[in-house]
Design a protein that fits this description.
The complex is a heterotrimer of chains A (about 250), B (about 450) and C (about 280).
Chain A (H helix, E strand, L loop, with lengths): L11 H8 L1 H32 L6 H13 L2 H11 L6 H8 L16 H26 L3 H9 L4 H29 L3 H6 L11 H10 L4 H31 L4
Helix pairs in contact in A: 2-6, 2-8, 3-6, 6-8, 8-11, 10-11
Chain B lengths: L1 H21 L7 E6 L4 H18 L2 E6 L2 H13 L6 E4 L1 H9 L7 H11 L3 H4 L3 E2 L2 E2 L1 E8 L2 E4 H6 L8 H11 L24 H12 L5 E2 L6 E2 L4 H13 L12 H9 L5 E3 L5 H7 L1 H6 E4 L13 E8 L1 H5 L3 H11 L2 H8 L11 H5 L1 H4 L2 H5 L1 H11 L16 H6 L2 H10 L5 H17 L1
Parallel strand pairs in B: 1-2, 1-3
Antiparallel strand pairs in B: 3-12, 4-5, 6-12, 7-10, 7-11, 8-9
Chain C lengths: L1 H38 L3 H5 L13 H9 L2 H32 L5 H7 L12 H10 L6 H26 L2 H9 L4 H12 L1 H17 L2 H6 L8 H6 L9 H22 L1 H13 L1
The chains are: A mainly alpha (about 250), B alpha+beta (about 450), C mainly alpha (about 280).
Chain lengths: ~250, ~450, ~280
């Protein structure tokens, strides 16, 4: 745990960890988890923001309602999701069966080949509203008269989107994708509460592995090593991202 | 501008008021206890009990309920910052970590004085004995006997399972479609093939121990991992057969989900404790009366063993440093009086089992309505406590790594390899052996 | 003719918007709705009958239990204290920081704006032990102020970057013109910039409020007295491994989000104000 006088071991700990296949498996799963979440959350979030930004009746009602998943305490939503996705008495399997889409219940969280997929979907459900509200805020600052001028010039919906809306929200999308990536990379609660890294290590990301190592089998020095490795990975990613994506597309380096 | 200034003043005032409130002015002696009994009814029950103690003795007991997932990390933080409370609720395997970090003190005199008066059964107090010193007192027991639907067994003409073969037969026969809509609605057995929480590993442990399988062996004085043995392989061989008749969703099964199955009457046999009893008795007494409990089934040539915990209270070194030992002694002497102890156990009636003979035989306990009503279930649960086997304590000594060995949930992980990933039993058990060795060597 | 075409197009667009909104609401709100149904269902309806869209005999027993027999009101008070303080302080600090990053020239700006993101480089769980020790040393252990401070640390980097982008969008000529007119820095920020970035302020306020409202880890570690605990941790305590009471948990969580919904509805008005702000800018 916390040793009083730990021996100096040089880089041994790092070599030991980089040598184990489990570590690389966890890195792979972390990248799958982060990537697929980002790939779903950002586009869907932007789409919802665009929808919410239109003129229609019941604006504030829809805005509040779509944001609810992000506002609910995660401990409760994950518990509810586990029950809803449960093959025996879960409502989702029940509905799918009623409308004739399946005959045998789907083991959403207990089948190791689809557990990661399920966890990603639940997390997407939780985080898209957040992206939506951030982008919605940015959309609000686009002056209306630009659109009016474009309409007079005969621009269609898609032209307006690509020439006015997108350039305006791009910096925000880019920086938020990046911050969200950092969060996702280290995200602990959703996976922990849904599967604890199982079944058969199918959802064992680095954050889960660090927790298990630190607080279930008490290998604190391994945890320290892993977090330094994380720090290095994320520092390099940050540097690359701002150099190649942020500056060029997002005007983030001014 | 004037308005703005007012707002600012109010804000400062609010902060100042909250600061003054958070400074505690304490005149009386206070002892602190950490525990993980966080559901509201348990907190309220303990509050009532502790305030009665304060009225009688003038000593305040401050309870700090910590959500179970954070319990371990908070204790570790407490050790690192030297700020543990006076008393800690604990599971036996974590006892070894506390000893390893020199965070607790032996309490032989307190233990002896309480033991003389109320008598702890040997199987329970020895869990807190290390190298001849008593490091804590069992405070309540939880055991996981075989729970089954007696009505379904009777209908199918089956006896409650006594051997592994009986259980396999029952699991097969009782996985059935009762209402005739072409879908299974009762499942023969609930075998958690999971590593979410310790349910999966505890169930495997129960079967492993009835077949005399072990993880550690300390009989030679040195710790060896003896997981890879014929007994272990037989056990996993049997469990892989049993897994065919288990409930769907076994890969994500934990205590909570299994309890859902019991409360909805969807499972015929399951290894579980009495946690469902209180709510089910209140809401659906008819179903509650259908459940019976029995001992774990035993293989040929096996032994009677059971999984469970005598949960205990430890006294920290910090209690000694802060001079709280006398108050702690007063509190414990008071707590173990049968009527007080019964009140403590009844914060989760039906689940928490007495750990002293005096409480178990006392009228207050036995006349408590729910205990009286389900006396047969209580008897079995209490009886199985005597056959409890603890992970890391099985090999003729106590492994100092018991906490990590249990916390690794490897027993469940090995079962997953066999059932989900189609590994051969030999290969999976060999893998388990090497993983356990890594944990011990670390 | 043209008029009719335009009308048709407008109708299709409207239809599409409502269809999209309906679909999203359905997918996103269904699980929440299910929590609500659970919270008003009796035991037998939850356990035995196949799931129903609405319970046959709705009950409010769980809500009564939450208010009368638990520490809900105490938790609520603590959570409000933390979240309101966090969102106010985050707003003030991030406005200053973002304004400096966007409009003031100083050495190390490029490096600084990236390093503030380092807070997000570690899983929060790694901070448990150091934070616990620090809180003990400075005497803020078991004090909600420590939860406020840590939460501000976690919400600041995102808030700063969000506001920085809003400030970057404001044309430089505006502030230069104001400077010539003799406005001080504070006046420029307060009178000219802030009204233009109201949607940004609303985003930051909502973000920091919700994050601190739902923060589980830090109060769980830094608070010990049950009467100082926040709602997120308190509710989590109901979900112990045994004897889970689904109805009560659902009722408690519905009551947890009601304050956030109220907060959002009131802050959401800033978005509408932001619309006019945007028009001024162009």
């Amino acid at each position: 745990m916390v040793e009083a006088d730990p021996p100096f071991v040089g880089l041994n700990n790092y070599i030991k960890i980089l040598w184990t296949p489990e570590f690389w498996e966890e890195v792979k799963l972390t990248i799958i988890w982060t990537g697929s979440n980002l790939g779903l959350i950002i586009p869907i979030g932007v789409l919802i923001a665009l929808l919410l930004n239109q003129e229609y009746k019941g604006k504030s009602f829809f805005r509040t309602w779509t944001l609810l998943p992000w506002m609910f305490p995660i401990v409760v939503t994950t518990l509810m999701w586990r029950w809803m996705l449960y093959p025996v008495s879960g409502v989702i399997n029940h509905i799918l069966k009623q409308i004739g889409m399946i005959t045998a219940p789907i083991e959403f969280l207990s089948d190791s080949s689809i557990a990661m997929f399920t966890v990603v979907l639940v997390n997407t459900w939780r985080w898209t509203p957040f992206v939506a509200i951030v982008i919605l805020g940015t959309l609000q600052t686009i002056p209306k008269d630009i659109y009016e001028a474009a309409t007079v010039d005969g621009a269609g919906i898609f032209q307006k989107f690509f020439y006015i809306t997108l350039p305006h929200i791009l910096p925000s999308v880019i920086i938020n994708s990046f911050i969200l990536m950092l969060w996702l990379f280290n995200m602990f609660p959703p996976i922990w509460l849904l599967t604890q890294g199982g079944p058969s290590r199918a959802t064992m990301t680095l954050a889960i592995s660090i927790y298990k190592k630190g607080f279930q089998i008490f290998r604190m020095s391994e945890v320290a090593t892993l977090s330094i490795i994380l720090l290095i990975i994320l520092s390099i990613t940050t540097w690359l991202y701002f150099k190649f994506v942020g500056g060029k597309w997002g005007r983030l380096n001014d | 501008m004037k308005m703005k200034k007012n707002y600012f003043l109010i804000l400062v005032l609010i902060i100042a008021v909250i600061f003054t409130f958070s400074i505690n002015v304490l005149a009386k002696e206070t002892i602190e206890i950490w525990h993980w009994e966080t559901p509201p009814h348990r907190i309220t029950a303990q509050e009532a009990l502790f305030s009665r103690f304060e009225k009688e003795t003038g000593i305040e007991v401050k309870q700090v309920p910590i959500n179970f997932p954070n319990y371990q990390s908070k204790i570790m933080a407490g050790i690192a910052a030297n700020s543990l409370p006076d008393l800690l609720l604990i599971n036996p395997p974590q006892l070894m970590d506390m000893i390893k970090h020199d965070a607790i003190i032996p309490v032989d005199d307190i233990f002896n004085s309480i033991h003389k008066k109320y008598e702890f059964p040997e199987a329970l107090w020895t869990a807190y004995n290390y190298m001849g010193k008593q490091y804590g007192l069992p405070v309540y027991g939880v055991s996981w006997p075989l729970t089954y639907r007696a009505d379904l067994y009777e209908e199918a003409g089956l006896e409650p399972p006594k051997t592994w073969d009986d259980l396999l037969e029952a699991a097969e026969k009782l996985t059935m479609d009762r209402d005739g809509d072409g879908e299974t609605d009762i499942y023969g057995f609930c075998l958690p093939v999971s590593t979410i929480g310790n349910y999966g590993s505890q169930v495997v442990w129960g079967f492993l121990r009835t077949n005399d399988g072990k993880i550690t062996d300390l009989s030679s004085g040195e710790q060896r991992i003896v997981f890879d043995s014929p007994e272990t392989r037989e056990t996993y061989e049997f469990l892989s057969k049993l897994a065919k008749y288990t409930v769907p969703g076994a890969g994500n099964m934990d205590w909570g989900m299994a309890e859902l199955l019991i409360k909805s009457g969807k499972v015929a046999t399951v290894m579980y404790n009495g946690a469902w009893l209180r709510e089910l008795d209140e809401k659906d007494p008819e179903l509650a009366s259908k459940y019976k409990m029995t001992f774990m089934p035993i293989p040929e040539g096996g032994q009677r063993k059971n999984t469970g915990y005598p949960r205990g209270i430890l006294i920290t070194k910090r209690a000694e440093e802060t001079g709280h030992l006398e108050a702690v002694r007063t509190f414990l002497e008071w707590l173990y009086k049968p009527e007080n102890h019964t009140e403590y156990l009844m914060m989760e009636a039906g689940l928490f089992m007495p750990v002293t003979k005096a409480t178990a035989e006392s009228d207050t306990f036995n006349n408590y309505p729910i205990i009286k009503k389900y006396n047969d279930l209580m008897q079995v649960q209490a009886k199985t406590m005597e056959y409890i086997s603890l992970i890391g304590f099985e090999g003729g000594g106590k492994s100092l790594e018991a906490g990590a060995i249990e916390g690794s949930f490897l027993l469940g992980a090995v079962l997953q390899k066999i059932v989900n990933e189609n590994w051969s039993v030999e290969k999976a058990v060999e893998w388990g052996q090497s993983e356990y060795e890594k944990i011990v060597e670390y | 003719m043209i008029n009719r075409d335009a009308k048709k197009r407008k109708f299709i667009l409207k239809f599409g918007i409502y269809l999209g909104l309906g679909l999203i609401s359905l997918i996103y709100v269904f699980p929440i709705y299910w929590v609500f149904v659970t919270s008003i269902s009796g035991f037998k309806e939850l356990m035995f009958e196949p799931p129903k869209v609405f319970p046959n005999a709705p009950t409010i027993e769980h809500y009564i239990y939450v208010i009368s027999s638990s520490k809900y009101l105490i938790f609520l008070k603590n959570s409000l204290f933390v979240s309101i303080l966090v969102s106010i302080l985050t707003l003030i600090m991030s406005v200053c920081f973002a304004y400096a990053l966007s409009n003031v020239r100083f050495y190390g700006k490029y490096f600084l704006s990236k390093t503030i993101l380092m807070v997000y480089f570690f899983p929060g769980i790694l901070l448990i032990i150091p934070l616990f020790q620090m809180a003990q040393k400075v005497g803020l252990y078991d004090n909600l102020i420590s939860v406020v401070i840590v939460n501000i640390l976690m919400t600041l980097p995102f808030s700063i970057w969000t506001l920085k982008l809003y400030f970057d969008d404001i044309p430089k000529e505006i502030s230069e013109a104001a400077k010539i007119d003799g406005c001080s820095r504070f006046d420029i920020l307060y009178r000219i910039f802030l009204p233009l970035v109201l949607p940004g302020l609303a985003t930051v306020a909502i973000y920091s409020f919700v994050v601190s409202w739902n923060d589980y880890l830090f109060p769980a570690v830094l608070i010990s007295d049950i009467d100082h605990q926040t709602l997120a941790v308190g509710i989590a305590g109901w979900t112990s491994s045994y004897s889970i009471n689904w109805g009560q948990i659902a009722a408690a969580s519905i009551m947890t989000i009601i304050p956030i919904v109220i907060f959002f509805a009131s802050v959401g008005k800033l978005f509408i104000k932001g619309l006019t702000g945007g028009a001024v800018k162009g």
